[in-house]
Amino acid sequence: MDYLNFDVQRSLHLNWTGKFIAPDENWIHMSRVLTDFEFIVMTEGELFIADDRGQYHLQKGDYRIMSPCERQYGYKPSQCTFYWTHFSYNNFHNDPGRHKEGELHLPFPAEDTHIALPEQARVPRLDRLVVQFKQLQDCNRKYRNINQDGHILTSILCELYSQLYLSGSRVTMKGEQVQLYTDIVDYISWRIRENIRVSEIAEYFGYNEKYITTFFKKSAGLSLKAYILNQKMELAQALLTDTNLPIAQIGYDIGFSDNHNFSSAFKKITGQSPSEYRNSYAERMLFHE
Strand 286-287 vs strand 13-21: parallel, antiparallel, or unpaired? Predict the structure, then answer.
């Protein structure tokens, strides 16, 4: 697996972007020679795509960065949905550093202007990238401002780098503390669409409620209830931008039995009502390749 090393002191250049939905189960990706980078983030199904260096199988939550000057083609029918972005780097020279796994010491120091990404990996927080893609497409359609587009695209790749290499670095925790924190976060992610109670989490892991509450706040910097609510609202943001589901249905799907409570909680976290948030980035670009 190769790693691509970008200097993001200067923004990337967005060429075009969209969301793709396969028209039917027999769709196969076109064959072409890429003239720029393509960044693909899968949201549903499976994509079977290849280039001159190999064949790749992408599933929901996976991403791949495909490089210019290589033939890109589908090698098998793909029933899938994904966001895609074509971009150029370094004044269209398209010459990031390319490294083998193990050659880089990641993450880079905080003052470094570089980010390095494996060509393909799983996105730890897909919902966050979905919201940013929607913002990118909405701004691109509304304003056609190449500087704004480039900054948003660069922010998306920086977000991915941060998810992969920065979000798990907790120097204050060691050994079994790290494992317990990770297990709690995974448990919340697993049950995020339910009405999760702190007492249930404590019982599941065999601790009393006071200990779990204190431990999590010390580890995460916010209370367990606040963390759960934030995670629910991030999922709601993704559903509001990436689907046409009714707002009441979205609230129900993330564990709210009452639409008023969902709307109040959402506005408290984001500063906007669900409908205001959805309308702020309403112009999603839908393309069929």
Answer: parallel
- Name the packing angle between helices 146-165 and 126-143 (round to 10°): 170
Separation between Cα atoms, residue 208 and residue 129, nearest integer Å: 35
Closest to 148 in 3D by CA, of 163, 135, 167, 164: 135
pLDDT in tens, 191-237: 999 999 999 999 999 999 999 999 999 888 889 999 999 999 999 99
For the chain, what is the total number of helices (H) and then of strands (E)?
Answer: 9, 12
Beta bridge partners of 99: 3
Q: How many CB atoms lie within 10 A of CB 181?
A: 18
Both tokens assigned to 176: 């079994």
Q: Please enumerate in sequence order all residues whose Cβ is within 8 A of that of 128, keeping only pairs 6 or more positions apart, or say none.
A: 159, 163, 234, 238
Cα–Cα distance, 148 to 137 (Å, whole number): 11
Alpha carbons 157 and 196: distance in angstroms, whole number = 32
Q: Which helix (H) or strand (E) covers residue 164, if one does? A: helix 146-165
What's the pLDDT tens digit per position in 60-108? Answer: 999 999 999 989 999 999 999 999 999 999 999 999 999 999 899 999 9
Please answer whether residues 22 and 42 qualify as being in contact, where contact means their C-beta atoms are separated by less than 8 angstroms: no
**CA proximity to 37, closest of 97, 101, 90, 89:** 89
Residue 263 burial by CB count (10 A; 0-12/13-18/19+): exposed, middle or buried?
Answer: middle
What's the farthest any 2 CA atoms get from each other in the chain?
Answer: 59
Q: What's the pTM value of the predicted model, to 2 decimals?
A: 0.83
> What does DSSP assign to residue 168?
T
